[in-house]
Amino acid sequence: xxxxxxxILLYSHLEKGILVNFRIKSQSASxxxxxxxxxRNAPHCKVTSKPIRSAYxxxxxxxxxxxxxxxxxxxxxxxGIVFIFLGFASYYIYLGDAWKSVMEKLGYPxxxxxxxxxxxxxxxxxxxxxxxxxxxxxxxxxxxGPGTAVLAGFVFWILSGLLPYISFSTLGMFPVRLLIIDxxxxxxxxxxxxxxxxWVYREESEQGG
Length: 209
Prior knowledge:
Elements: E1 3-11, E2 17-25, E3 29-38, E4 44-51, H1 55-66, H2 69-105, H3 114-142, H4 146-171, H5 176-200
Antiparallel strand pairs: 1-2, 2-3, 3-4
């Protein structure tokens, strides 16, 4: 966005000359110039430039500086525990048998191992931390509260859940009904986990109160 200012002065007294002054401002710089035409002297022009610190850059840096990273990780751990509990519960109640049956028909039977459990647990904590981080990042704009937490969980679900499931559906290898159920269950888990993780999060200025 540019802010352009142009100022023209006519020296009517004895028709001595013309002065043109203009200034152009943007988010990153300011450019100004003055042109003088005087009958008594040769025309001359003076150009000045000055960098301006972007408001958007400083605002973004301010938000990142104010973010309470200890609370981000603490809330992320809480969200990760919720992911583990609800994720494993949904897997063993319904999704586990359904996915095992599908993978066996495809010739890739699922085998549970220690490595698989470690990968799942670590992944749950990583996703939980990222969900709370997203909440903390949009909190200054949308305000603290469950509404912002639900929004953060929903957006994160679109990126990490909905879009991958849409990609899986285009392969034609997996039942669409199973993908839809798994995707919706992931949405519920994501929102609940982000809500509880966001409940733990506080800005540094709020911890004293």
